[in-house]
Specification:
238 residues; two-stranded antiparallel ribbon; 3-stranded antiparallel β-sheet; globular; 2 domains
Length: 238
């Protein structure tokens, strides 16, 4: 196990998140932008593996969520406010289908179709026969993590712990922090100032492309794995 330079910042986030559901959500919304970082690295299958900060904070969110459910169970039935909407039901269905597909399809169709390499994707330029790999379990794990975070946000919102407006504000704060890192990244490239890669890009277990250029111009990756991921997330947020 290797502790990274991001660990002190993560410990501060965790301490703040322990204060309550609202604090956890605020910290998680900010941590979600640090997708290229991890508080620690583990040796798994002969390679380094790190967990993104937002996922690492998930146990604290579960603790708050279970506490809220326990209090709901002890409250009078007329005061309980929880109902599954159609959109949340679709999210449940999507997660179930995604997890089932990631685990079952490589076994059902092994060797019958060709796919992009699971660890390389479009950049590889080649296809290989489909077969089960550890990546299938990782994909399922991330699907479950994303669903759990969404379910906790849904629960806290329905119980009046948070509002959609406050959640959006937390996301904008996280986005502002990420853009600040991105602006410094471009400034560092032009001036030679040091880029804190051991902090921002501490998850060396995944491919990191912070030095991409296009037509000779440095592309901004900020706190993300590579520039296209930054563009995608900010487009969705806007």
């Amino acid at each position: 196990m290797l502790l990274t330079d991001f660990l002190p910042a993560f410990l501060v986030m965790a301490l703040v998140a322990l204060r309550g559901p609202r604090a956890w959500l605020a910290v998680t919304a900010i941590a979600a932008f640090f997708q290229a970082a991890t508080p620690l690295l583990l040796g798994v299958g002969g390679r380094a593996a790190g967990l993104a900060p937002a996922y690492a904070l998930l146990p604290i969110g579960l603790w708050h969520g279970l506490g809220l459910l326990f209090r709901m169970g002890r409250a009078p039935e007329r005061t309980r406010q929880f109902a599954m909407t159609g959109r949340f039901g679709l999210l449940v269905l999507f997660t179930v289908v995604g997890v089932f597909g990631a685990l079952a399809y490589p076994r059902l169709f092994q060797g019958m179709v060709s796919v992009l390499p699971p660890r390389e994707g479009l950049d590889s330029g080649v296809v290989v026969p489909l077969r089960p790999t550890g990546t299938n379990y990782i994909q399922s794990f991330y699907l479950v993590c994303n669903f759990t975070i969404a379910a906790l946000v849904y629960l806290f919102h329905q119980q009046g712990v948070i509002t959609i407006e406050s959640f959006r504000r937390f996301l904008w704060i996280g986005g502002a922090v990420s853009v600040t890192f991105g602006c410094y990244q471009l400034l560092a490239h032009l001036t030679g100032l040091p880029w804190p890669a051991s902090f921002v890009n501490s998850n060396i277990g995944v491919a990191q492309l912070p030095e991409q250029t296009m037509l000779g111009v440095r592309r901004m990756s900020a706190t993300f794995l590579e520039p296209s991921m930054l563009s995608l997330h900010f487009l969705v947020m806007v």
